[in-house]
Amino acid sequence: MAQGVVQIPHRVVQVARLIRGLSPEEREQLKALVPELQRPPEAKLLIDQGGLRDYIQQELAKVGGEYPPLTEADPFLGGLTVGEYFALSDEERERIWNKEHAMEIEDFEERDVKPTAYVPARQKRRP
Amino acid sequence: MLSPLPTYLLDKSVVRRIVEGLTHPDRLTDEEAMAIAFWRALRESKSRMFISAETANIMKRFSTWREVRLFLGTVETMRAGKYFKRWARRLQEHSFTMEDAKVLGLATYGTDAAGEILGVGVMVTFDRPLINNYEAQRPALERRLQAMTAQLSPPFRDAGLPEVMHPIEALFLLG
Fold this sequence. Notes:
The complex is a heterodimer.
Chain A: H1 10-20, H2 24-33, H3 49-64, H4 82-87, H5 90-100, H6 120-123
Chain B: E1 7-10, H1 12-23, H2 30-44, E2 48-52, H3 53-60, H4 66-72, E3 76-80, H5 84-92, H6 98-109, E4 110-111, E5 122-124, H7 128-149, E6 163-165, H8 167-174
Parallel strand pairs in B: 1-2, 1-5, 2-3, 5-6
Antiparallel strand pairs in B: 3-4
Helix pairs in contact in B: 1-2, 2-8, 5-6
């Protein structure tokens, strides 16, 4: 199990997958039977945020000698500065990312793939 | 060609949480913490992490900063392989938005810089409606893909559908 993450039994993960496969109508039926499921997930119970903070700081220190950290005045997405960007709501920041990803399907350049290429989707097992 | 490394495509919702979280490690939101815990687990498990060429091009504009540089140093760029456009157009006929079709198209018909991989095993996103739509339509998509690939040459005839998961689910399955 990944570091900093509380272990969840595999059967719980399997139930989660099963629920995701239900139709909207079946989900409503399930919620009627198990009303507790309507509460949002509590990620704070699952992830050690202090451990993550230390990890991020360690990793940033490894590249910090060569590259400067972002500052409030630096330009960032949407023509905003870093400070302006992070003053926006989550929804507004998401809108900026969506606007930046405006490439049309037809504009993608398709590349060659080797005949012997590995196809991961055919190798894995469904959990 | 066989590769022992698990492969993951991170959509822009995951990339955004990782990059944003790296800028303020002292006050991570729940979603940023999930995304970064997942990213960390992938690094530690030596998995191959991909982002779309579109997302990579956006991030590269800011690659002189340590947060972006750190992230870009851990991921590869997934490019559109042959038949990507055809599959992405068909995905749009199954109620997927253009954004969804692009990332799902890459997850099946994307390739790495050397052209040695076709698609990924898992596509990860915070977009619950996308995950739910994918699960609901999966049997139809399997049939559609099979019909499309039947006449193609290798490796395209072997193309498969990825698993599509929320980061928290993918994180626990890594264990």
